[in-house]
């Protein structure tokens, strides 16, 4: 179940959180790179599917914080989903796995972490995605979209 401090629904919701799925996707990607495990690839594909199809809020250009049924808005203040979604795009070629993070970054705008501050995956993916245009096309001089990864 979702923690009671975060779910005030009469019947407590069961589910997950977008940022945590981002952490899982990054870990599974690292494992997949080392092992080539079909099961790891399946976890990446299923996790990205859940984020893209159930947690994304197009109007807000962000992923919902949790799967609590009362949570209906997306947020863009946390970028932990982005790297995992980028890896899922690499594996599947599913366009929305790339376009959603691009939209989220565009909405995040001036709050994008400074490239000189090392904050792990968020900055790495932020600057890889920032090199891409709004439709997943490489910005001038950056080559193919996949080359940005």
Describe it for me?
There is one protein chain. The protein has 149 residues and is mainly α. The protein has helices at residues 18-35, 38-55, 82-92, 96-108, 121-130, and strands spanning 56-57, 62-64, 74-75. The protein has a 3-stranded antiparallel sheet with strand order 1-2-3. A hairpin with a 4-residue loop joins strand 1 and strand 2 (62-64). Helix 2 crosses helix 3 and helix 3 (82-92) runs antiparallel to helix 4 (96-108). The longest helix has 18 residues, at 18-35. The radius of gyration is 15 Å and the shape is globular. The protein starts with 17 loop residues before the first helix and ends in a 19-residue tail after the last helix. Mean pLDDT is 79; it is low at 115-123 and 138-149.
Give a short summary of the structure.
This protein has 149 residues and is mainly alpha-helical.
Molecular shape: globular
Put simply, the count of helices is: 5
Spatial strand sequence of the major β-sheet: 1-2-3
Structural class: mainly alpha
Radius of gyration: 15 Å
Strand % is under 5%
Secondary-structure element order, as H and E?
HHEEEHHH
- What is the helix content? 40-55%
Report the uncertain regions: 115-123, 138-149
The overall pLDDT average reads 79
Question: Major β-sheet, in short?
Answer: 3 strands, antiparallel
Distance between the ends:
35 Å
- Total strand segments: 3
């Amino acid at each position: 179940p979702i923690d009671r401090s975060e779910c005030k629904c009469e019947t407590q919701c069961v589910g997950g959180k977008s940022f945590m799925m981002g952490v899982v996707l990054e870990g599974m990607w690292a494992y997949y790179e080392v092992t080539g495990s079909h099961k790891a690839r399946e976890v990446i594909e299923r996790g990205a599917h859940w984020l893209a199809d159930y947690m994304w809020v197009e109007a807000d250009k962000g992923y919902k914080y949790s799967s609590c049924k009362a949570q209906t808005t997306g947020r863009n203040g946390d970028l932990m989903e982005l790297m995992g979604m980028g890896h899922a795009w690499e594996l599947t070629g599913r366009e929305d796995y790339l376009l959603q993070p691009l939209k989220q970054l565009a909405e995040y705008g001036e709050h994008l972490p400074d490239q000189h501050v090392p904050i792990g995956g968020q900055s790495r993916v932020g600057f890889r995605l920032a090199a891409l245009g709004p439709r997943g096309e490489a910005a001038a001089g950056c080559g193919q979209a996949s080359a940005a990864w």
